[in-house]
Amino acid sequence: MKSIIGPKAQIVLHDRDNKERRQNSQFQRLPLFKTLREPDGSRTYWMCRRRPVCKKRAITSTPTGLFKGQFSQRQNKVWSTQLILRLLLSADSSVVEVFKSMDHDHPPAPEEGQAIRAYSRMKRAAKQHPEAPPAQILRQHMPDVPVEALPYLPERQTMKRTMNRLRQGDFPSNPKSLAELGEIPEAFRKTSSGKNFLLYDSYDDDDDDDEDDEEAEARRRESRILVFCAKSDLKRLARADTWQLDGTFDTAPTIFAQILTIHGTVDGEILPLLYALLPDKTQASYTRVLSVVVQKCAEFRIRRPAPRLVILDFEKGLINATKQAFPDAETKLCLFHLRQSGYRKIQELGLQVAYRNEENPEVRDCFREIVGCAFVPTADVVPSFQAAKNHAPNAMRPFCSYFGEYYVTGRRAQRGRRAVPPRYPPGEWNQYEAALNNEPKTNNAKEGWHNRFQTMVGKSHPSLYPLILEFKKEQADTSVMIAELNVGKQVKQPQRQMFRRINQRLQRLAEQYNHFKEEGRLLEYLRACGHTAGL
Predict the structure, then answer these.
(1) For residues 149 and 338, what is the distance between their CA atoms, to the nearest angstrom?
(2) Which of 425, 452, 535, 534 is CA-nearest to residue 263?
(3) Is the peptide bond preceding residue 52 cis, with omega within 30 degrees of 0?
(4) Using CA atoms, how far apart are residues 393 and 396, in angstroms rounded to an integer?
(5) pLDDT tens digits, residue range 297-354?
(6) Boundaries of each MULE transposase domain copy (predicted)?
(7) pTM for this one?
(8) Going from the N-terminus, what domains does the chain have, and what CATH number goes with each?
């Protein structure tokens, strides 16, 4: 805290990080103006904030560096409190001399200073965290305001309007549609450290269409794709052995359909490395993003990405695009989503009550046997499924037909209709090798990241530029975590003991698969795997 002590009043210049109570200054945080009575700018005049009721003022020396070389351009203008305090606190000298200090015409009101400081903290929070709604900021800060200071605060609606203006102050206007989205401003093309962050903007692609063709221009805007990835993260992605790809919709801006993220392994941890804003959920858009990754690696002379394992959700367009871009990679679908989609079908068939029946577990056991087919070798999935199907109760026949058509055998040719292969063949969702090698079977790490990121964003479907700011913050946080990993620190909570035990049990079961099979205990094996995996 820098203090200016006068004989009759005290003016205090407060450092924002100092938590000491300051209640004795009527001139504190007052509007301030510069006068030309001193041509060299050596004096600063402070006015009481209750002017014109109280016309008292103080005169001090000007801290070194304040308004240097600015007198001729800003003569006799009143400066905003925020600007003046920032300039004062960044001045070269902390020694200020008081030439004159007058008694006020009213008694001191320390509660007013408390209210001013509290309101300033709220406004600062609105600027620093534009993703936070004003109501959330008020709820966080208002309990800290002393009751005596409440009368000096503006009305809540006034404070909310002010905070909304501050939240939007540093952002361009939010486009209402992709057609309104112009060039991304430079500040949102860079990381927090000033490095290039906008890896690709489809609008910048060379287009053979006539620039005057309005329809072509409209199509170009409506298919806009933005990819954010720092060069350093692109290098890490190219080296990563395992990728996890996923789209999310809740945190996507209203003008985009989804956010596609790519997580990669860095020193054994799954970390977010690339963020893409897509206009739709088509295979063409997924292909474009993955092509950009490969092309930019070539452009930056980074080794071509060659992930060994890519874990995906049950999004067919994304699966096809991944196989096309990385044909040598092993693509695996998340076990959690297999279980989730299976149980949704149980609910759709009205079997959830029978599934939860503790006295008669036949529906639940059948479900575990069928989904447990994920833990037999891929070549054995069809006969294992057939064995489970033959053992299924009548109520589960529709579920068996659904699972077989979509995940195992497909639809057989009949009555002139051609055969249709399964939408998700067993090789894509099989987990036998992953269980044997104790490898990831789900993308829960990525799901956890999405949940945390949504909490950080603070709302569904945020505006575009606040979301990009969150991408920048996440990229900076990831860089710090990587630096911590490089010095041997642990950046994530270790896998919970419960999940470690589950993986170890699945590994032991997979090692005994042939033993179960030879003894004719296949259904017992399937149920055990399904039960252990939490099905």
Answers:
(1) 57
(2) 452
(3) yes
(4) 6
(5) 999 999 999 999 999 988 999 999 999 999 999 999 888 888 889 999 999 999 999 9
(6) 243-340
(7) 0.71
(8) 1-108 (no CATH), 112-169 (no CATH), 179-334 (3.30.420), 335-441+497-532 (no CATH)
